[in-house]
Amino acid sequence: MATPIETLPPREVGSAAPPAPRRTRATDADRRHRRGTARWFVLAGALLVAVVMLVPFLIMVLNAFKAPADYSQNGPLSWPAELYTEGLRTFWERVNFPEKLVNSVWIAGTVAIFGVTLSLFSAYALGVGRVKGRMSIVTLFLLANMLPQEVLVYPLFQMAQQVGLSNNQWSVIIIFTVIQAAFGTYLLSSVLGTFPKALLEAASLDGAGRWRTLWSVVFPVVRPTLSVLVIFFFIWTWNEFFIPLVMLTTNATQTIPVALASLQGDRLMDAPTTNAGALVSMIPAIVFFLIFQRTLTRGITAGAVK
Fold first, then answer.
1. What are the distances in angstroms from CA 236 to CA 47, 110, 161, 241?
2. pLDDT: is 23 or 224 the higher one?
3. Residue 2 above 70 pLDDT?
4. What is the pLDDT of residue 35?
5. What tens digit of pLDDT does each residue of 149-177 get?
6. Which of 7, 222, 50, 230 is closest to 123 using CA atoms?
7. What span, in angstroms and rounded, lies between the C-alpha atoms of 229 and 214?
8. Is residue 289, in this structure, part of any structural domain at all?
9. Residue 302 and residue 127: Cα distance in Å, rounded?
């Protein structure tokens, strides 16, 4: 006798659709696998770029400890036949490196502090004070950053002679303070242009003046950005060559990049000594970067979050 076939009850009109199937664990695992594979490709690309950037540095280190005869016979890519340290001593004594180091630290550090302070004041007036013609002034600062130094060096040299700052480190400090502050003002004015008005109104209701608002309200918010600018201004000024070469004409006032250029003659260059000098000159900048690396990272991250 045949078994009766059970029939399902008819589906009511307007009833809810059956729930969608959940994602399986295999699907989630596949997606994680694809993301992990993409990350490995990105990491491999980053390592490749790092290796390419380190190649010139490694060649410089290789030739810094190579004798001149070994360099001329075997070329810059060969391994040193012996550990040659005479180039380091020659550079140290010939250019009086401690004196050049003090000059570079003094000029770069002073420019970094003065440039950031001037940038903060100018950006506060433009971004928060709402000076008339704000966009025109900011555009002028942007155009000033685009001017090459070769255009500025002759009038700046004449002005330094007229005011009695010829062969004076303060001439370089003033020039680079203005140059770096132009970029800092352009950057900070954009940040302060979007500063929360509620904080400024609350400070005004509490009786805070403009100076109190600047140091108690605005400065704590933009302090991470200012720390990043200090590091950038120091490194940029440390590496400057052309304007210090023109403005500083005696060995007692010159900086490290200018001292490196003095090792090269018109028709002859001592490559091992030059490489040794470049290696020694990079050490203070690397130490400075390692000391303030955490500050740089925090400043960039805080600026991105805000």
1. 26, 13, 25, 10
2. 224
3. no
4. 65
5. 888 899 999 999 999 998 999 999 999 99
6. 222
7. 18
8. yes
9. 19
CA 88 to chain centre: 28
List the beta bridge partners of residue 264.
269
Q: Are residues 165 and 275 in the same domain?
A: yes
pLDDT band per the 50, 70, 90 thresholds, residue 148: confident
- The DSSP 8-state label assigned to residue 250 in this structure reads S
Q: Counting Cβ atoms within 10 Å, is residue 127 exposed (0-12), middle (13-18) or buried (19+)?
A: buried
Tell me: do 247 and 179 sit in the same domain.
yes
What are the tens digits of pLDDT across the range 242-267?
A: 999 999 988 899 999 998 887 776 55
Residue 22 lies in a domain: no
CA distances from 49 to 33, 41, 42, 53, 240 (A): 25, 12, 11, 6, 25
Distance CA 97, CA 94 (A): 8
- With a cut of 90, say whether residue 1 has pLDDT above it: no
Domain match, 158 and 256 both? yes
How many domains are there within the chain? 2
Q: What distance in Å separates the CA atoms of residue 30 and residue 38, rounded to the nearest whole number?
A: 12
Q: For position 115, which CATH number holds?
A: 1.10.3720.10
Domain extent for 58: 40-84
Q: Identify whether residues 147 and 254 lie together within a single domain.
A: yes
